[in-house]
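go over this chain:
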Amino acid sequence: MSSEDYEPREIDATRPSAARMYHYYLSGEAVFDVDRVFGERVFQVVPYADVGAHHNREFLQRATKFMVSQGIRQFLDIGSGLPTVGNTHEVARTLDPEIRVVYVDNDLEAVNRSHELLSEQDALDTTAIVEADLRYPDLILDHPETKRLLNFDEPIGLLIVSVWPFVPDSAKPNEVMARLRDALPAGSHVGMSHASMTDAPEELIARMVALAELYRETSDPTTMRSRAEFATFYDGFELVEPGIVYAPDWRPEQPVDLEDPARPCNFAAVGYKG
């Protein structure tokens, strides 16, 4: 998709958005009444939607810490959502306070709240929030804030966590990923997750189908992809151990509950660019 086609998205309080709903699952806070009402419908279909969201956020946190351990000192977090406890910069800076982070989201509410949070934390010298869309990578890469904080001659940690499901096939997501991959210098890492029904039990597949149908009513309808389709986003990267697994299974810091109903249906992995 051409950068000329990009149109900033205004706040729409009449329909839920992916960023606001993710924030609702993580924090219990509904930004608008429509989010709370929609959330109640979601929980009727998938009662553990909030648990799944926390699995996703915890994967992002572990992936961030892993990347820092590998020498990454700058991050590009695309589709970062509303500021919620445990954001990338908060996690990374427990290990190195000088780490630089550029957040990106196409939801204006997420952008505004993130800017407020970063201002309150006096973090704008080393952190930025960019209003942009994953589908238009050149606008992200060429943005003045990206250029201000990220040095593309040094390894970068790219995070695209639970964002690809909201990018339809018509937007040519593999071409988007290739553009981002080509922009990353050697030594960079990418952490991603993606909802999927591959290997899921039939009862859970039925719930995921119903959830996808619900999301057609939001500003961000979903596209489910198989494990194999998700793997293609790592073309040109070397998967680090344990490869593509369910989000809670990626380098867990505590025992994984194999009976957790929220464990399946969300694959995650980290790749390395040599």
The longest strand covers residues 189-195.
